[in-house]
Write a structure and sequence with these properties.
This protein is an alpha/beta fold. The protein has a single domain, classed as Metallo-beta-lactamase, Chain A, CATH 3.60.15. Helices cover 28% and strands 21% of the residues. The strands form 2 sheets. Strands 1-2-3-4-5-6-7-8 form an 8-stranded mixed sheet. The protein has a 5-stranded mixed sheet with strand order 9-10-11-12-13, with no helix packed on it. β1 and β2 form a beta hairpin. α7 runs antiparallel to α8. The two termini are 29 Å apart. Bound molecules: zinc ion. The site of zinc ion (ZN) has 4 residues, from loops.
């Protein structure tokens, strides 16, 4: 039985104890429809692990660092895992303790590490994005306004950091959690998740969300993002999962049913207008 309790007063950022040594930190995302990020903290004897962190903005920084101070008063060394390269998950990575001096590992996929680092290193990333929009008729003014208001530009990390690349097949051990790295491309080209077989916990990033559907976008050099996403859902559906720890909003206790809902959602939207999508991968007899 999942045992969640709020260990702070109602006016403070939320920290929830999910199981022995595992906490959810709610990092507010002001004015974002996502409302908040779920970061996860595994408290180990020698090293801790923080999964995802938040936008590079004061509200996120204050909540996250306050929670880390409370959960880790002895300042035991902490490593960092970034599920994917969106700024609401990776915006604070350069500021986390130990990252700048290399005493802590910041781990992520090489693909998404390159992505998030590219948003911090001058105009190259956004030039590429705007060049893709230009042929579709947006005015220069509209594109500049879009860029300047985009959270990935406003709240991106303060600088690039040297991520330690991890990939499917790698295993990370913190406290009682033996975490298998599982690639789930789709929401981003290089999104990674973590599976803890003993606890049957699945740290999903934004691959599976409970009350909203993960956004599937167009990425340069990543054709058929939706097809990739659906394949990644199929892969996770075969796993034995007791609890999915999502990147936003509610955690998911019935993962198989939620995956079926997500597949059905895309199937419904695709029917009649998406000739060429690989439905044979995802259509089952049971819905
Ligand atoms: Zn995301």
């Amino acid at each position: 039985m999942r045992n969640i309790r709020n260990i702070r007063d109602k006016d403070s950022p939320v920290i929830e104890s999910i199981s022995q040594g595992l906490y959810r930190i709610e990092v507010p995302l002001p004015k974002s429809p996502l409302k908040a990020l779920n970061a996860y903290f595994i408290k180990g004897e020698k090293r801790n692990l923080l999964i995802d962190n938040g936008f590079n903005r004061p509200e996120c920084r204050d909540a996250l660092f306050s929670a880390l101070h409370e959960l880790n008063p002895s300042q035991t060394a902490t490593d960092y895992f970034i599920t994917h390269g969106h700024a609401d998950h990776a915006g604070l990575t350069p500021e986390l303790p130990g990252v700048s001096d290399g005493s802590a590992k910041a781990m992520g996929s090489s693909r998404d590490a390159e992505l998030i680092n590219s948003t911090t290193t001058g105009p190259g990333f956004w030039e590429t994005v705007l060049n893709r929009m230009r042929p579709h008729g947006l005015s220069e003014q509209e594109m500049i306004a879009m860029r300047d208001n985009h959270p990935a530009a406003r709240y991106c990390p303060s600088q690039a950091v040297p991520y330690q690349p991890v990939a499917e097949g790698d295993t990370l051990t913190y406290a009682d959690f033996v975490l298998q790295v599982v690639a789930v491309p789709g929401h981003t080209p290089g999104q990674l998740s973590l599976y803890a077989p003993k606890q049957r916990f699945f740290f999903a990033g934004d691959h599976i969300l409970g009350t909203i559907t993960p956004n599937i976008a167009h990425w340069s050099g990543f054709p058929d993002a939706l097809g990739q996403y659906l394949q990644s859902l199929e892969k996770i559906r075969r796993m034995d999962i007791h609890l999915t720890l999502t990147g936003h909003r509610a955690l998911v206790e019935r993962t198989t049913e939620r995956i079926d809902e997500l597949v059905a959602h895309h199937r419904k939207r695709l029917v009649g207008r998406a000739v060429g999508y690989h439905f044979d991968i995802v259509v089952r007899e049971d819905f």
